[in-house]
Design goal:
Distance between the termini: 28 Å
Low-confidence stretches: 1-26
Strand order of the largest sheet: 10-9-11-16-15-17-18
CATH class of the largest domain: Alpha Beta
Radius of gyration: 19 Å
Helix content: 10-25%
Number of strands: 18
Number of domains: 2
Number of helices: 7
Order of helices and strands: HEEHEEEEEEEHEEHHEEEEEHHEE
CATH topology of the largest domain: Chitobiase, domain 2
Shape: globular
């Protein structure tokens, strides 16, 4: 009962925040290269997917949604109740992400910028009402940043000589993106978008990675490492263990730590697991998924479906 009250209180606070702002920001030039994705079930079902949504220069995230879908709202238009007749309730609600990052304010006050990929998803929040970052908008936020701000890219490898490190660098190089390379947490200031590559048991000094040993309420990721990183538990939408993988299991996931920029992890239970995750590190595999586990060479969207 205490946990339910906490979650409901968090959602109530989120709803209140959404109600604080109006829908418009004044006239202006419409941002370019904006995309809109509307899904349900953590990306399992697609309702709208367009690279050319209807948009105006005065639009906020919620106004763009209203132009492109049948939407009902509450709290002065700041909170989305339903999209395409799919309505919140029963432990599910609408959440949104811009360039793979959960916004820190309501959709009615979130301004659109060039290159923004806006993703609305209707999902169960019983395990957590906060998923700070997702991987399914790749190559965002690396190309256009988030909140209208570009951040430098930094690849941190716990085994710099490993082929997996150069392979990840090659993915970004193919997109003509320049990344600085370094060891884990060697930079004194974390003002970069970090991509961390290495077996999970080599990440113990990283406080953001340590969140991946806890439940989704802690990391926003529906998987967790156990047994000192030698096992990877795959979780369903309720946060329950569906399957446990051992040697050779990989994970591609993103999270945040205390409001710092998002951190992406390409990791695994051992070197073979990292290699499997690197193999899956591409837009085709990551598209529209919150996170990906790789088990026996199969990419499994997270949260995992009950079996």
């Amino acid at each position: 009962m205490g946990r339910t009250r906490t979650i409901r209180a968090s959602v109530a606070a989120f709803v209140a925040a959404l109600a604080l702002a109006g829908c418009g920001l004044g006239a202006g030039t419409a941002p370019e290269h904006v995309a809109l994705l509307v899904t349900r079930g953590f990306g399992a079902g697609t309702l709208i997917a367009t690279e050319a949504p209807k948009i105006d220069g005065a639009d906020t995230v919620i106004r763009m949604l209203e132009r492109n879908a049948k939407v009902t709202t509450a709290f002065g238009g700041g909170f989305v109740q339903s999209v395409s007749k799919i309505s919140g309730g029963g432990g599910s609600a609408w959440f949104y992400y811009v360039n793979g990052v959960q916004a820190g304010k309501g959709a009615a006050s979130t301004r659109l910028h060039n290159g923004d990929r806006v993703w609305w998803d209707f999902h169960n929040w019983s395990a957590t009402d906060s998923i700070p970052a997702v991987v399914g908008s790749f190559p965002e936020p690396f190309v256009d940043g988030y909140g209208g701000k570009h951040l430098p890219l930094r690849i941190e490898c716990t085994q710099p000589s490993a082929k997996t490190c150069s392979a990840v660098e090659g993915v970004f190089s193919a997109m003509k993106m320049i990344a600085s390379l370094g060891c884990l947490l060697c930079s004194p200031e974390n003002q970069s978008l970090r991509v961390v590559v290495g077996p999970f048991d080599t990440l113990s000094s990283d406080p953001a990675a340590e969140q991946l040993t806890g439940p989704p309420a802690r990391s926003g990721v529906y998987a967790r490492f156990t047994d000192s990183g030698r096992r990877l538990e795959l979780l369903d939408q309720g946060g329950h263990v569906v399957a446990t993988a051992g040697a050779g299991a990989g994970l591609i996931a993103a999270t945040r730590f205390r409001g710092q920029p998002p951190v992406w992890y390409i990791t695994g239970t051992n070197a073979a697991g990292v290699a499997a995750a690197v193999q899956a590190f591409n837009a085709q595999t990551l598209d529209d998924h919150f996170a990906i586990a790789v088990v026996a060479d199969a990419a499994i969207p997270l949260p995992d479906a009950e079996r």
